[in-house]
């Protein structure tokens, strides 16, 4: 018996070996079908600076650098680089890279793409303006001058996708597709020619986008997929049903309340993890009187005790358990663990202590609390409106009457952002730093509002501390990692002590996958086809 | 006749201009499109520049006037979200909506008329009672829910029909059709049923009521007295006479089918004009919203115009009345 078993095993091994000898591994056509809630609004890599769009186009186009499955920076079209002066970088470009159309990738393409990203109509102007000049040393070496010393240039380059100069010129698409019209950019709006592992072979907006594997790809990838079909499905219920019915391999996002259903259904499962997005509440700390409050003549949020009282009134674990079905990660700091500069030691949330909260309010002169309105989106973040409602009921327990004013994102952002004069007293916002670095958060959310310097512009409540501003400027230029971390820690500590913001949690990523399909769920909610393996 | 049509046409243009004006007055309340057009890193100056270049700083009536002048020349402008001409998008989406609406209309007629006749003839029958009760659901359950229930039963539980999209479509250049492929036809079943259900119950109840009415009239009694076969009395005399209002209603309802396909299209991710419109609302894509409303306004105006003309042709009294009207 024993003998026979091993004989069988030997035969099996021989069989496998024989199959292995049978020449090149047979490329079996494998299709991966997935749905997302939105569609690709444009195929132009410089048309819109948005994570979903750039992340998806990242399968077709590539930047000089890229993120791997764990959001770690890896070389892409640049093989290596070095900083030769604080504002000068030399990139060695990868040789032998071909665009889908067969053109060679050279230094000219990088220079062209940078110029195109800075053209009228481009939404990548901010990124392009980080660079003041690119000099071509030879076909595969460039010297990049930055407008100011910038240790984050390589992170920023991830989303500055490279187009082919020849192809763009031949097709008259040398400037980015503009929303305000003009036919110049329209070719790249509907056609692609990148260096990535997949090429777009069919794109019917809002209906489906088909990606085919590019055989001439320079790199090796884990994926065994030869064709990817993206179908946008806007309705949550329809999207989940499409997965349950077996028509799709993956859908995202899945509403948190549907997780149990996916777990109970055969053949599918929810795939969840923390997103690199921090959800927080902000308070107007700059006006002398709040716009939407019962308190007249003074601004209660200018009093640190009131802010602390709010912090101690919020039960983040209850929000996690009741609103988020246990799936969020309560947080004490304004960046997520995946973000460069995160320090676990600082991540303890404010203690939930309603008694302390009441005492602080009384001490600040509001023993009976007061009324304030919170602005809240209802279709932007996971369960955003319900978080606001939960926070309002928690604050009611300490005497603060919070009215929830929830609106669709288009209305909400039009009300609270800079262009409308920060028309809010108390608000909920979520933030993922595009550069995956804390500096982005320091500059956008924690610095004092400064229109000239263009910092603090998303600090809607204008929390302001001179030392944090100073640190932000230092962090931007500091290239020594240890010193940089110390500075970031110091700034985060100050914000925490002064209760500049009320961090809530990292919201969960919520995908649904068919059994047997493996993907890497990146913390920035990007689906990278390079990691997709289907059975 | 000619002056009547011209008169109607002038009225129609006024209706459409009004639709456009109201639409533009409301767009200000939908939200600010700019935030959907740029990423979070885009500076305020760039946002302001974009705002200016899109003419969003102008008062709504100026924006409307600009739109109306361009629309009169067939120019609907460029979609903010898709970055393509709106007319191109509408042409691309029109076939999906029309196929769905027409199939739904046919379905409603083919099922609704016989069911109405049957329930009128067998008023006390068990099947009639069942049909009448079921039709209450058709009238009262919202389309959204019907769609979801159908998806749940046929897509998720039985897994026999696709739950979203149009399946494989054949591109004829000027038209895309899903009715030539098996997957396209299968995809059509659930959305068409969903969309047809309300019309179906409406037509059924209308036919039933009219039939009951006609069956009571003298000429049916005389027909019976003459000894005609019951079958021919029911289907030739009674049904024919009860169909006139049915045809009118069906014609007018076709406009509603096209317009109210929005919900069905959203539930089934059916890539028609309704879905385009819903997405435009979410993204505050003003050119698309405006163009859609005007096109739908046009469809209604056109159908009403045709119905009016048909009346004019069919009903001689109308002509006499107009002639006599001069005497008042």
Quick description:
The complex is a heterodimer of chains A (535) and B (328). Chain A is of the alpha+beta class and 535 residues long.
Set out the fold topology.
The complex is a heterodimer of chains A (535) and B (328).
Chain A: H1 2-21, E1 31-36, H2 51-57, E2 65-67, E3 73-75, E4 78-85, E5 88-93, H3 107-117, H4 125-128, E6 131-138, E7 141-146, H5 153-156, H6 165-170, H7 186-190, E8 198-204, E9 208-213, E10 227-232, H8 236-244, E11 250-252, H9 259-264, E12 268-283, H10 304-313, H11 316-323, E13 329-330, H12 354-363, E14 371-377, H13 384-397, E15 401-407, H14 409-416, E16 426-431, H15 438-446, H16 466-477, H17 481-497, E17 501-514
Parallel strand pairs in A: 1-10, 1-11, 14-15
Antiparallel strand pairs in A: 2-3, 4-5, 5-7, 6-7, 8-9, 9-10, 11-17, 12-16, 12-17, 13-17
Chain B: H1 2-27, H2 34-37, H3 44-53, H4 60-72, H5 86-121, H6 126-140, H7 143-157, E1 170-171, E2 176-177, H8 182-215, H9 218-225, H10 230-259, H11 261-267, H12 273-283, H13 286-314, H14 316-325
Antiparallel strand pairs in B: 1-2
Helix pairs in contact in B: 1-4, 1-13, 5-6, 5-8, 5-10, 6-8, 7-8, 8-10, 8-11, 10-13, 11-12, 12-13, 13-14
